[in-house]
């Protein structure tokens, strides 16, 4: 395979995927970490592993209530029944539903002044996923695709850079990378299971599989001599990535983690998925999104938040602790987000409805200032009263926290595409 | 003087300063109490409507109990606490605060002799307290989900606890032995798409002759987060624990039973909310109600006056309504 004619010709792109994978196979036995096998010096691989920027997003699907999490208002008309508790950051209180998270808040930061002006699930999720409003004129790549592409040269993993762990469903690959191409589309681990079809069929012998792939490569290479395009490269790359997934299938197997760790994260799906996220990040995957559902609590909000946030608290705090203890938090951005928050008003069903005007997210790691609190809401949580933040600001901030110049551009077949919405900028005071 | 549900009509609306939750008449029939979302308990005199607020909890209060003489009110909070109050005081201050649980206390029950108070909630443990001094007597573990309702058998020897899973545990009060579990699991759903548990035994009553145990709540919870369910009362034969009948409603989709009362005249009464709110009346031998009285606002709590004629309901619009079951 030639070096990519349309590439930016940076050093990173001069290492082709094929070469990378081939090298990986050659030195696999010497690898110190599965995702960093290219570097047959253990010290080099370890340093590469340590320095690589990564991102974990925990998506609280349906709309986490900011009042039952990051911005409690106890004792007010909107506060509900739960109390606020102190955290490891002096003066900072969060909901009593998060006692374990409270103990690791010094590793995290809060933004309490988000106003995304969008109360629709799909449109709100789009803003949080792309940092832009949905428009019929243009599709924009999802955060995971942008991060995977922007950090590609920083990643030494031959595996997909964009993994989505969903609570259920099958799997497959999402078309969520827009103009960045299918290479950056998310690989979905439905129910935390390994990617679909990543096991060699029982009826296909290994040597037959090798022969078939050799033939495919020869035909591909011949075709590429005269007809090579970004699309054919993506096609070729998807096969090679698929093979690599098959070779490294066990990185999706959390039973390879210690029994003690499996118990620490819990026996429920979310706990297992957080442990899987840690395992993937440790093995060089650039971006992992875990979804915890469901927070769309129009009815009996307090019962359901007690149940759901209670389940979230332990695994999340354990994940933050592990990343910090293993020296990974310095290089890993972790974000807990939703598509919006929930109404301060409590409805007749003891529910809270959609509310995008004043809500919160939690983030930490990488270049995020530990213990910071950005913005505030009024006494009853109905309005932002300082440092209003939009999804566009958040998108810039994520990239900046990962060391990516968020005002930069992608070169897409010669066309310059801004990485993030140029109408916004990072929240500089949140960055160290 | 007997009740006639078909003559039900609202005779009083008692306003509070916030949406109301649980309510309880005092045994003497002079007062009615209700908890509210502003963390106060309100007491109204039925004659004249004079209102007094009790404050002392650091959370909402999910249930109330009254001593048989009407002198002491006990409230169950989401702040782990039980608080004993002088029920009739002009300026009520807590008599005693007891940290009784870890998390919400959802249900209270007083033993028939008034000596024991049972409490239970989100920590899934039922505790027995000396009602006179607040000292702990014993505790019963074993529930696998939150305790939603408690009931003493009129004989006093057994305590029943209904939980979110729709399991009713019957304990021997004297030695804490689990006597049996009764199945009301039709009142629980785990909705896999939303990944939530929903329902639970929201109310329990025994018929005056102790022949029937009725557990109330909801079923058909196909969209718990979106309030899609229907009310259900399960009638179990006490001796055999077998399901004898499922009492349903007509035209009351999206509601659930919050409270029930087995009337001395033999009919079953439930207060429902989630939609418009209603009082539902069933006879023992019928699935469908013999009468439904629509309330003007979603009901959240219900209590029946010692006279058996007046029914109090608490509402999201901040009003306690008194419905009279006679002309």
List keywords for this structure.
heterodimer; A: 432 residues; alpha/beta; 9-stranded mixed β-sheet; 17 strands; 33% helix; 16% strand; B: 327 residues; mainly beta; 4-stranded antiparallel β-sheet; 30 strands; 0% helix
Helix and strand topology:
The complex is a heterodimer of chains A (432) and B (327).
Chain A: H1 11-14, H2 17-27, H3 42-51, E1 54-61, E2 84-86, E3 93-95, H4 99-102, E4 108-114, H5 121-130, H6 143-150, E5 162-166, E6 171-173, E7 187-190, H7 206-227, H8 230-247, H9 259-265, H10 269-282, E8 287-293, H11 301-325, E9 332-337, E10 341-342, E11 354-355, E12 359-364, E13 373-374, E14 376-377, E15 384-386, H12 391-401, E16 409-412, E17 415-418
Parallel strand pairs in A: 1-8, 1-9, 4-13, 5-7, 5-8
Antiparallel strand pairs in A: 2-3, 4-12, 6-7, 9-12, 10-11, 14-15, 16-17
Chain B: E1 9-15, E2 20-25, E3 31-36, E4 40-45, E5 51-55, E6 61-66, E7 72-77, E8 81-86, E9 96-99, E10 105-110, E11 116-121, E12 126-130, E13 136-140, E14 147-152, E15 158-163, E16 167-172, E17 178-183, E18 188-191, E19 196-199, E20 203-206, E21 212-223, E22 228-237, E23 243-247, E24 256-262, E25 268-273, E26 278-282, E27 291-294, E28 299-304, E29 310-315, E30 319-324
Task: Offer a quick outline of the entry.
The complex is a heterodimer of chains A (432) and B (327). Chain A has helices at 11-14, 17-27, 42-51, 99-102, 121-130, 143-150, 206-227, 230-247, 259-265, 269-282, 301-325, 391-401, and strands spanning 54-61, 84-86, 93-95, 108-114, 162-166, 171-173, 187-190, 287-293, 332-337, 341-342, 354-355, 359-364, 373-374, 376-377, 384-386, 409-412, 415-418.
């Amino acid at each position: 395979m030639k070096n990519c004619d349309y590439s930016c010709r940076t050093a990173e792109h001069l290492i082709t995927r094929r070469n990378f994978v081939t090298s990986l196979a050659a030195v696999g036995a010497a690898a110190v970490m599965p995702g960093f096998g290219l570097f047959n010096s253990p010290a080099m691989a370890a340093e590469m592993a340590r320095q690589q920027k990564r991102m974990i997003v925990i998506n609280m699907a349906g709309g986490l209530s900011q009042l039952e999490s990051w911005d409690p208002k106890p004792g007010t008309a909107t506060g509900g029944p739960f109390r606020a508790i102190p955290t490891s950051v002096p003066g900072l209180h969060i909901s009593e539903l998060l006692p374990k998270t409270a103990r690791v808040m010094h590793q995290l930061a809060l933004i309490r002044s988000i106003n995304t002006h969008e109360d629709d699930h799909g449109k709100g999720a789009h803003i949080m996923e792309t940092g832009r409003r949905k428009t019929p004129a243009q599709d924009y790549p999802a955060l995971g695709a942008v991060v995977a592409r922007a950090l590609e040269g920083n990643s030494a993993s031959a595996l997909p850079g964009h993994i989505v762990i969903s609570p259920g469903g099958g799997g497959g690959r999402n078309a969520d990378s827009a103009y960045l191409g299918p290479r950056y589309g998310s690989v979905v681990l439905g129910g935390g299971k390994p990617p679909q079809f990543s096991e060699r069929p029982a009826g296909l012998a290994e040597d037959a599989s090798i022969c078939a792939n050799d033939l495919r490569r020869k035909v591909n290479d011949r075709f590429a001599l005269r007809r090579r395009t970004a699309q054919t490269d993506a096609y070729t790359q998807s096969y090679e990535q698929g093979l690599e997934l098959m070779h490294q299938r066990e990185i999706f197997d959390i039973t390879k983690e210690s029994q003690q760790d499996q118990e620490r994260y819990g026996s429920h799906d979310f706990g297992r998925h957080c442990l899987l996220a840690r395992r993937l990040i440790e093995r060089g995957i650039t971006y992992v999104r875990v979804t915890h559902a469901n927070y769309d609590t129009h009815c009996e909000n307090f019962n359901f938040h007690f149940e759901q946030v209670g389940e979230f608290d332990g695994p999340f705090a354990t994940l933050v602790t592990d990343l910090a203890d293993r020296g990974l938090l310095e290089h890993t951005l972790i974000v807990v987000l939703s598509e919006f928050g929930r109404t301060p008003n409590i409805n007749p069903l003891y529910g809270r409805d959609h509310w995008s005007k004043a809500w919160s997210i939690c983030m930490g790691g990488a270049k995020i200032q530990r213990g910071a609190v950005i913005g505030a809401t009024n006494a009853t949580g109905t309005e932002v009263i300082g440092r209003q933040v939009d999804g566009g600001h958040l998108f810039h901030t994520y990239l900046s926290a990962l060391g990516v110049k968020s005002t930069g551009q992608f070169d897409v077949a010669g066309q310059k595409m801004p990485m993030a919405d140029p109408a916004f900028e990072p929240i500089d005071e949140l960055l160290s | 003087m007997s009740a006639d549900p078909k003559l039900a009509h609202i005779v009083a609306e008692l306003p509070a300063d916030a949406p109301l939750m649980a309510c309880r008449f005092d045994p003497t029939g002079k007062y009615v109490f209700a908890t509210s979302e502003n963390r106060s308990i309100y007491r109204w005199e039925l004659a004249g409507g004079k209102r007094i607020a009790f404050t002392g909890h650091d959370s909402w209060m999910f249930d109330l109990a009254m001593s048989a003489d009407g002198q002491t009110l006990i409230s169950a909070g989401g702040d782990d606490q039980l608080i004993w109050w002088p029920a009739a005081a002009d300026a009520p201050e807590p008599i005693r605060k007891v940290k009784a649980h870890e998390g919400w206390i959802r249900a209270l029950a007083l033993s028939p002799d008034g000596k024991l108070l049972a409490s239970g909630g989100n920590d899934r443990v039922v505790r027995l307290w000396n009602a006179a001094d607040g000292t702990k007597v014993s505790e019963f573990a074993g529930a696998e989900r939150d305790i939603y309702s408690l009931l003493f058998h009129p004989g006093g020897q057994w305590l029943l606890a209904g939980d979110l899973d729709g399991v009713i545990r019957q304990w021997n009060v004297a030695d804490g032995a689990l006597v049996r579990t009764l199945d009301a699991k039709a009142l629980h759903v785990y909705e896999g798409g939303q990944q939530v548990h929903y329902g639970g035994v929201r109310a329990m009553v025994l018929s005056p002759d102790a022949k029937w145990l009725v557990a109330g709540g909801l079923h058909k919870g196909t969209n718990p987060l979106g309030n899609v369910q229907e009310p259900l009362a399960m009638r179990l034969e006490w001796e055999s624990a077998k399901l004898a009948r499922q009492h349903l409603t007509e035209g009351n989709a999206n509601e659930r039973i919050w409270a029930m009362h087995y009337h001395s005249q033999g009919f079953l009464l439930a207060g429902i909310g989630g939609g418009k709110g209603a009082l539902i009346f069933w006879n023992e031998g019928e699935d469908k109600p013999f009468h439904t009285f629509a309330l003007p606002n979603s009901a959240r709590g219900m209590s029946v006056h010692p006279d058996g004629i007046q029914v109090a309901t608490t509402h999201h619009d901040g009003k306690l309504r008194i419905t009279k079951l006679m002309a």
